[in-house]
Give the backbone structure.
Amino acid sequence: MNLYKLLQKRLVDGRPVRVGLIGAGKFGSMFLSQVPTTPGIEVAMIADLSPARARAACQGVGWDAARVEAVRFTEDAMAMIADPAVEVVVEATGHAIAGIAHARCAIAEGKHIVMVNVEADVLAGPLLAREARRAGVVYSMAYGDQPALVCEMVDWARACGFEVIAAGKGTKYLPEYHASTPDTVWGFYGLSPEQAKAGGMNPQMFNSFLDGTKSGIEMAAIANATGLGVPPEGLAFPPCGTQEMARMLRPGNAAPGGGALAMRGQVEVVSSLHRDGTQVANDLRWGVYVVFEAPNDYAARCFSEYGVLTDISGRVTALYRPFHLIGLELNVSILSAALRAEPTGAAEAFRGDVVATAKRALKAGEMLDGEGGACVWGKLMPAERSLALGGLPIGLASRVPLIRDVAEGAPVTWADVRIDESDAAYRYRREMERAFAG
C-alpha cells in the first residue's frame, strides 16, 4: 500500500499528519500507544468528557511529558473538529447520536473522518458517506476493527477474480446470550463483578459484545459497505472452526450435503462454541474471514497444487485472520484518508439494519436502556424488512419510553415508543431511510 513511504515524504516535507481524537477510551488509548513509534503522525488535540482522564490515558500508554504537553485537551469536540491544526478526525466515542453530530461537523469543516463508532455508521452511515463524498473528504471505517478488516478481505477476493460466498467474523455465542443483562453478563465471561470492576470493564458495553448486538452492528456495516447480503432471519451464528469454513459456509441447499448460509454472498458470524457449550476446534473467536470460490477448473487445480484447504468440490476455500489488533492498527485508516484520499471501507448502500428486539416481555411505560442493556438486543435484518415493519434502530433505543407492550423476541417499532421527532439524530436517520430505501 506504500502508506509508510508516503508518510515519510510528508515528514521530510515538514507536514506531519495531524489528528484530532474524540474519546480516549480503550480504542483511543490503543491508537495513542502507537503514535510515538510512527514518525509523521501527530496528535494535535484530544476531546474527551474528562480531559484529565484523556491526559492520564496518554501517560498510561507511555507518552513522555513533552509529548503530552504538546497536545491540547478539551471537553469541546466541536471546537476541536473546527481547529485548523486538525487534518483527520477520529471518532471513538461509541455513542451513536454523538457520532453522527461529530461526523457531520467534520465533513462541514472539510476534515477527513475515521469512524471507530460503528454504532453511528449503522444508524446513518450511507448518508454520512454520501455527504462526505460530495464535500470532497473521506468518511472511513476504522482499520483494526473487524468491519474494515473484512471489507479489505472481500475487496482482495474480488480484485483477484474470486466470487465471495461469505464473509464475517468469529465470536463466542450461545442462544441464551440474547437474554443477558448487565447484571448477568459477568457469569457468561467467567468473571465475578468484583474482578470486572477491578479491570475497569463496563458491564453494558461487554453485554453488547455478548448478547449479539455488536455482531449485528458489525455485519450490517460490512453489508452496507460491500454489497454482501443479509440473512433474511438474522445471523445464525453457526459453530464453525477454521478448518470447516469451506465446507460449512455455503447455502443450506448446496450439494453435496448442506451448509449454514441462507444464500451465496452474505455476511455471517461463526461461533466458537457448539450449542452444548463445548469448544469448537480451531475456533475463530477473535478473527475475521472470507469464503470464496475458484472461477474455473484451472484455478481450482492451482488450489490443489499449492496446498489450499477446500471443500469436497475443490473449488471453495477460506482465507482468515485469527485475530485483530483494534486501535493498534488504526494508523492505516488515518494514513489512507490523509495520504491517498481513500477510506478503509465505507457504506455505499442501506442493505443491513440492526433493530431493537425485546429480551423479555416489555410493558408500556418502561424506559428502554439501549445497546447492551436489560431490555433489548440488536438483531441484524435486511434493511427492506426493517423499513417495512418500522423497526426501531438499536442506536436510537436508549432512554426512550414504550407506549405499547412488546412480546419477548419481537422487534420494537417506531409505533411502540414515544420519541422526540425534533431530535437531530432522529431526523437524520429518517432522512437516510428516505434517501436509501430500495
About this structure: The chain has a mean pLDDT of 96. The first helix runs from residue 3 to 12. Residues 147-173+212-324 form one domain. The longest strand covers residues 163-171.
